[in-house]
Every structure is written in C-alpha cells, then in structure tokens.
Amino acid sequence: MRLILAQIGKNQTIGFATKEIVRLIKAMDKNIVLDVRRYDKKDETVKNAVWVGLDDSIEYSEKDRIFIDVENGMGIITGSNERSVLFSAYRFMTELGCRFLYPGKDGEKIPERNLDYSDLTVKINETESYKHRGICIEGSVGYEHVYNTIDWLPKVAMNGYYSQFFTPTTFFQRYYGNDITDKDVAAINSCLEDEVAKRSLVYHAIGHGWNTAPYGVEATGWGKYENEISEEFKSAVALYKGERKLFNNMPMSTQLCFSKPGVKEKVTDFAVEYAKNHKNIHYLAFSLGDGGRNHCECEECLKKRPSDHYVDLLNMLDEKLTKEGIDTKIHFTVYADTLLAPIKEKLNESDRFVLKFCPIARSFAHSYDDVDLDNLPETAPFVHNQDMKRDTVELNVAYLKKWQENYKGDSCVFDYQLIWNHHVDQGYFHVAELISRDMKDLGRMGLNGMLSCQTIRAAFPTGLPQYTMAQNLWNKEKSFDDIKNEYFASAFGDNAKTVEEYLKKLSELTNLPFVIGEVKLTADEVKERYTILKETVEKFREDYIEKYKETSADWQYLYAHSFLVPIFADIYIAKYNDTEETVKKYCNDYRNKLDELKPVIDSVCDDWVTKFDLLSKYLRRH
Ligand SMILES: [Zn+2]
C-alpha cells in the first residue's frame, strides 16, 4: 500500500508530527510504501493524501483540540494549534493500535500489522478537559530522563513541561554527582528547551529563587550559601528572630522585607528583565522563598499577611510587564503561609495570572472526590510565622475556597501524587486510582488542570499512575477501568488480567495509610499482612515472572520489583517485631538491591528518592 503524507507548511512541530507518523507507521508495517511531501498550503487538487498540519477544518485556538478526519488513507490530521497537530498525529497512531505507556523507548508499544486503506480510517474530534496538563521536574535526573519525559508528553496529549529554578542543578547533581556545575546544567537545559520548543509545548519555569537572584545569589537547589552577602541584600532580607540574614544560610528558603522601600521594585524589575530575555518561557512561576514560617517580622511587614505582601508584589509585576508589552503569564503560589488568602489586597483584574494551588501537606490516602464542598472544615486563624493545620484534603480545599473569594481567574493544582507516596504503594495501583479520582474532580474544585510535581522517573513497576494522569487530564470522562484495561492489555497481552490482579493485591496488602502513618496496626497484624505480601510476590515470580521475564521490559521491571517488595516487607515486619539492628540490616539490603538493579530500572525508577522516602521519611513515622 502506498501512503501519501502531505505536510502543510514549514512549522517545525508540524514537520516533527509528520516525521513521527512516518517513523511509527513504518515500524508498524514495514511493507507500507511512503510518499512524503510538503506543500505551502493544502492543495485541493491532490485528493489521495493524508494531510498533516493546520488548514481551515477547525478554528485556531490555544485550547488544545484533536481533529482527525481520515477515510481510506485520505483526509486530514489537524488540530487547533501546532502542538495539537502533534497530539493528533500520535492519536492517529494510537487509533491504529500504538500505545505510549510511559517515557522512554520501552514505553512505546507499536504492534506489527499489515495495514490497508480501510484501516486508515480514523475520525476524532475532541477538546481538552483541562487547560494545564504538565509535569514539573523533581527527584534525581539525567539528561535522558528529562528528554524521555518531554518526548512522551505530546504522545499522551499532555501540553506542558516545568523546569524549576533559574538553573535546575540540584536534580541533575543528585544523579550525576556534585562535580556537575550550574554551567553544565544550564547547557543541558538549553538542549532540553529546544525539545520543548520543537513540540510547541507550553514552557513553565523558575518557581522559588526570585528573592535572592536580584541580589546576585542564585538558588539552584536547597544548598547552603557560605559567602558574605552584600549590605544592600542584608538590609532587604526578612527580619526574623531579631536578625536580617539568609534563613538557615539557604537562599532558596530566604524571605524578604517587602515593606522596605525599593525591595519590591528591585525584585519586579529583575523579573521583567528576565521575562524580556527569556521569551521562550510562557509561564514564569513567581514564588516566594520555599518553606515558610520565616516571613519578615518588622513593624511594617507585620501589618499585613504574607499573602497581602505577595499580592502587592504580583500586581506591581503585572503592571510593569504590561507597560513593557510583555505577555508572559505568571503563576503565583498558594502554598505554606500563602495558603491563607490575602484579606487587605486584591489581585489586579488581569488574565496575566494563574493561581497555583499547592496542597503539599495533604493526605494521599484520600481524594478530592471525598470532599463535601458544602461542609468544609473551619480554616485556622492567621498567626504570623506559625504553621496551621493543613494535613487533610478537606482543609487544603477550605483554604483554596478562601482564595477563590478573592480571585476568580485561571487556576490549577500543583500536586504531589508522584513525588513521595507513590513509592510506598507496592502495587502502584492505589496511586493510579487516586490520580484518576483526583483528576476527574479538579473542575469541581475550580481548578483547570494540574502541573504534577513529580519524580521524572515514576513508572516502576508500571507506568499506570502517570498514564492515568495523562488520560484523565485530557478526558476526565474516561473511566479508570478503561484506562487500566488498555494499559495492562498493551503491556502484558494475554496476561493483562493476571498482572492487574497481582498488582492490585500488592496495593491492598501494602495498606498505604498504614505506611504513611495515618492508621495503626499491631505487631501481629503487620507480621501477618506483610508475610502474605512476601508470599504473594514470591509465588507470582515463580508462576509467571520467571516464565516471561525475558519477553519485555515490562516483565523485566516486574522481575526487579519482585526482589524489592519482600525486603520492604521485611523492614516493616522487623520494625514491629525485631530489633533496630535487624531493621538497619534490611534497609541496607534494600539499598544494595536497588543499586544492583539500577541498570535494569534506571529509566523508570528514581532510586535516590526511593531510598530517602522508604528508608528514612516514612520509616521514622513508625
Ligand atoms: Zn519587613
């Protein structure tokens, strides 16, 4: 069969979309005869082609829309913008049987089949459920991991990548080691930014760091700054416990004295210059210092909440950007102390802003869909530099509602389902279900999507949670049943149901609320439950994994995983029934096993974060 693929125009994303169809369709059917062309615009006299690009089939819009109208190998693959055309190209291939389960080559499933013209009949007309569908860098990463993620995003119709800090050095140092410098990482990031641009993805950048960079101190991680700071900077730093100095020597977490003359001006001037020189950034994330409870205690600053000072700063930035004719959007962060809404100031009526709701302390044992919006709990009163109770989903939403009384504009959640707790869930099934429930319910919370603050490598033992996130951010009506069936069928073929039941059982046996410290179990209960967990894994390894482990990367991951889960179980059994020495021994075994398995699972498992979370953060709660 000969297929004419006709690219419309010279846009690089549309060129890439065409090339991706070529690559995938040829891998699917090596006998297909391709005739690839490029025209300046659609030529109605060429009848027997599949056109790829923007024509007048649908209206141009920033709102992503997939539009495919192909019949018997003729028609159009288009979208509401260049990025959407790329989504449509991947969707076309998905309709032919491809699946993009997780980042990296192994996540791409391309069935071999003979195609004829009647197979090339696809009609899709869908618009995004949510505007913001992005992934934000966290954890430990190398170039390839981030590249794989950026490459994967459009395959599943996710539209944004968020690079944290002026230079995201800390994440790369955790992977490559401390000898990699800011300059090296800036050079890596420069290549990654090209990949974002090539796909016309929405680029979000920075976050924390604005408090110190204008004074010449760049925060590229949570490290200490040991040099002297300038007198000018010292006088601008928050007065905290009677002193003006970097908070814990950490630029990332330092706050400023925003009522001091010239401070807001300096920070916003710096941000305007930055926006002017970085037009490739569509959304500047403009956050205060990380953490909290360390805001300025000078007499003037104490007259308003941190959120009120923040609103002043944001309004000033908006006005300056408008004056300069810069249309860069600004995220502002409803997080830690600024979770408490402003009461004296109000944000400008402007489409400049996106409220970024960051419920970092929420429980991941419960979903937004548990929340009764008509019966929200009372929020805590504001007390300067004192933390408030915010450990439940309901409380976080209650704080958000207060903000929504003040601000009605564009909003999204910046959430953490895939940063810490996901490692705990040994079957990765609980977290996938939670994400589906969360994503389906965002609209009811007044949130137009999610930027997922997550480890870039989060697909171990499967990519189901991340895949579910993408599916439900694009289409919130798609059922979790359909998503998981699709995933397991594509990854495990005839064994789909067996693997699904196995992983579901592991999640049930793990009992995530127990590991994260929300429910208590007795020593006997832990022993019984986690002994069954070990036996389940060992039996499944014997009955299935041993047989299939050489057949695919997906089975390889299950194989590797089957050695880690029993040690995880041993750690907890020992924690409740044995000495601290024994616990330490199993923790060491876990660490060594992860190191041994690294070559197999490097692209899907963030071993750095896993070690920290499982062997330190959560274990301390028991
Ligand atoms: Zn102050």
Structure description:
The protein is an alpha/beta fold. Helices cover 42% and strands 14% of the residues. It has 19 helices and 18 strands. The protein has helices at residues 12-28, 82-95, 143-152, 169-176, 182-198, 231-236, 263-277, 306-323, 393-406, 421-424, 429-441, 464-474, 480-492, 496-510, 512-515, 523-548, 553-577, 580-601, 607-617; strands spanning 2-8, 33-39, 49-52, 65-71, 74-79, 99-100, 108-109, 122-127, 132-138, 160-164, 202-207, 239-240, 243-244, 283-286, 329-334, 353-357, 411-415, 449-455. An eight-stranded parallel barrel has the order 9-10-11-14-15-16-17-18. Helix 7 crosses helix 8 and helix 17 (553-577) packs antiparallel against helix 18 (580-601). The longest helix is centred in the last third of the chain and has 26 residues, at 523-548. The radius of gyration is 25 Å and the shape is globular. The mean pLDDT is 97. The structure holds zinc ion. The site of zinc ion has 8 residues, from loops. Zinc ion (ZN) is lined by residues 239, 257, 259-260, 296, 298, 300-301.
